[in-house]
DNA sequence: CTGAAAGCGCTTACAG
DNA sequence: CTGAAAGCGCTTACAG
């Protein structure tokens, strides 16, 4: 591997001059520059980032912390982040935390020890004692708000939960079963808040028997419906706070001989890519996942490159997409 | 930020001694060690990886190159890679190449300039001029074989294509429509080879009108079916070389009033997570995606840590999972 | 068992 | 416009 010294020697200049050319930080005489460029080409020279980083303390790398890349919501968001990062010359380190705070802590330490320039958190829990007391690495949260002084990109989940529930109530005027993920995640907590608001606005009493927590997965939705039916309860309509839960639920309903939407209407949340292809296709609250990733990466990189920027909070309006399941 | 010198000074030892403790490379007197540890704790010291990397040329980071993390096949595999990487103390840089060879080249250069310790390629194209002439960074391919001297983890796609097609032929004794992704990707090429072999074994003439290339996505499968029907052709049974294509196709068939499986049987490939939940659930060729990721990461890391290891090729048997769509 | 010193490959004031 | 030199924060022979 050629180093900057090899280039300097061969081009008959000082290493500093080569460095100036590389980063075009100073005016270099055109001939000199050309000569250097040629040698660089010739020796197929590429600067080693670590050496540069040691000096500059910048690594052009950002971290993404999320529970599990396999969750379809996170996947698209990650893609959005990566695309923007790439555009600005950054790379992305992926960290699957499984919402395990030990893992989260370890990853965080590694990321810091690797001098990453910033971090994006998606779908993490509400208590972020972790990010306290850390240096001033820029941070952006997607889908959770942890404080005014930390950037966030989110959809108004309270409104989303409200919209979904209201829609069901207006169509059926009947009880709505809520299938939700862990309420410790702020997005689920808020969707439930929206659910409660909608009930209140219709003058309907909250019935806690209608609220079921389950794993945020196809299987989670599937299992919970089977459990409910096995217990002899029935269901009039469902608001599932996540599409994967919703689709698992639909499957279980149909296996039970329940027709969707004729017997039970189902509304999901997220609008994952399969939602429109499923049979029946799923009415759901759309989240601009890719866009949120892009936005978060832009916020982050702006703050990496200009530390004086204040934090921003981007809140999107949720959008109901009506399809066959209602 | 505390440095190793701060620790040394405060603990009244030389930096080298601190380094020895950090990496426990030499015997250090227990008391000295304890004293150092304490100071490290006290100052909340964490070594900077870049400095270490500059010297050791190791970064404990590997790269994953894949077309698009949103493709459900890649997602799970990536998760498998990341889990194993994490277990061994490595981080993972994610690169979405969109099969664009320019992007691929750029990413590759960045990865090399960042001194990553190894690379895993998933689902890339067949011509890998790119990886020639590069230094000796360990590399593993998932789902494509590029040469005896480069590790690979793959499912026997020829056999998979054969199994799927044979299964359809035996049940219906009739023509099988093949929906495939770009044949430039070796996995699709091989699945088609398997398809051809199955035809031959049943003494059926190959009919190129039955083979359709489409985008590897729900929409791709959906669109191609609509096109076929709009052209007035019919379909007896389908082997889709990817589950996403298959599911899009099923949706389009049902919209056309075609019943699955009564009128048309459909077999997919991959066994993505939604396959079992879809209505009808999808008969498909199972690929142990997570497992392949794990295996690839293990192969890679073993080679990073012991450069003398020869390349290995792991080939798995494909497994047909029969569900409702046939 | 411990320390002094060189060096990894860059960047960046500073001097000219 | 160009160069000599210090320094980023570690590791690692080498000497004792």
Indicate the CATH class of the largest domain in chain A: Alpha Beta
- Taken as a percent bin, the fraction of beta residues of chain A is 15-25%
Helix/strand/pairing category of chain A: alpha/beta
CATH architecture of the largest domain in chain A: 3-Layer(aba) Sandwich
User: How are the strands of the largest sheet of chain A arranged?
Assistant: 2-1-3-4-5-11
**Fourth-level CATH superfamily of the largest domain in chain A:** Response regulator
Radius of gyration of chain A: 25 Å
> What is the CATH T-level topology of the largest domain in chain A?
Rossmann fold
- Return the average pLDDT of chain A rounded to an integer: 92
| Unreliable stretches covering 5 or more consecutive residues of chain A | none
Shape of chain A: elongated
Number of helices of chain A: 11
